[in-house]
Amino acid sequence: MRIIRAKDYDDMSRKAANIISAQVIMKPDCVLGLATGGTPVGTYAQLVDWYNKGDIDFSQITSVNLDEYRGLKRDHEQSYWYFMHENLFNKVNVKPENIYVPNGSNMDADAACKEYDEIIEKVGGIDLQLLGIGEDGHIGFNEPADNFELGTHCVDLTESTIEANKRFFNSADEVPRQAYTMGIRTIMQARKVLMVANGKNKAQIIKDAFFGPVTPQVPASILQMHPDFILIGDEEALSLV
Fold first, then answer.
1. Three-class SS of residue 239?
2. What is the DSSP string of 108-158?
3. What is the spatial order of strands in the sheet that 67-69 belongs to?
4. pLDDT tens per residue, range 139-192
5. Catalytic residue among 68, 138, 208, 234
């Protein structure tokens, strides 16, 4: 595990974008596992800036996203398909046929999850997986549990996750209660894992996840065992370590 200390959010975003762009330059046809949420927005903005300057080419990459709300269509403004297009895909030259996000509009959970695992296997696995971290230690939508879920699965979102995500909706009542997410095994099989974290509200969970025991009650803690895991945090997020 490598920990990179950034001065602030912008510095964290640049450092993360550097690692992603290096992956794309070294392997132009790489598979990027991408994440949504507020934390990676700055990283995507930096990648778009470098693309506009001609420094990075996304034409050969494949993207597989971590998760999607169950029950939201792709054109819903709060779907993760929509988020990724607004923040990255519509602004760079990634090919539409190389973009994969779990199919939230498929209400057959078993079929949707099986299909997504097959897609990840078909593209050859993930070269670099980008992650954020929830205040309860969740990665993707892998919530605290009694065991680590392996493959893509349907999860009931915890109240803390619903509370954290309600700012994107008109009210907490509109936040979907379930989501499809990559499992821990899929994330751990990525050849490189990159996590970004910022803010004082992440300081305690960073300490618990990476300086405490490995436990499914803190899903991110499993990353202690990944052979190529990088955590980039700003000073506030890393203030307890």
1. coil
2. -HHHHHHHHHHHHHHTT--SEEEE---TT--BTTB-S-SS---SSEEEEPP
3. 67-69, 178-181, 153-156
4. 999 989 999 988 999 999 888 778 877 877 887 788 888 999 999 999 999 999
5. 138
| Pairing label, strands 229-234, 192-197 | parallel
The rounded distance, in Å, linking the Cα atoms of 23 and 184 is 22
Residue among 67, 127, 149, 234 flagged as catalytic: 67
pTM higher than 0.90 for the full model? yes
HEC secondary structure over 164-206: HHHHHCCCHHHCCCEEEECCHHHHHCCCEEEEEECCHHHHHHH
CATH architecture of 2-234: 3-Layer(aba) Sandwich (3.40)
Rounded distance between C-alpha atoms, residue 68 and residue 179, angstroms? 6
156, two tokens: 């009931």
208 given a catalytic annotation: no
From 68, 127, 143, 149, active-site residue: 143
For 113, the token pair is 């999850």
Smallest CA-to-CA distance from 133 within 51, 12, 26, 25 is with: 12
Is 153 annotated as catalytic?
no
Question: Can you tell me whether residue 90 is helix, strand or coil?
Answer: helix
Catalytic (active site) residue 67: yes
Which residues make Cβ contacts (< 8 Å) with residue 204, sequence separation at least 6? 135, 240
Phi, psi of 129 (to 5 degrees): -110, 120
Cα angle 231, 234, 237 (rounded to 5 degrees) comes to 80
Catalytic residue chosen out of the listed positions 135, 136, 235, 236: 136
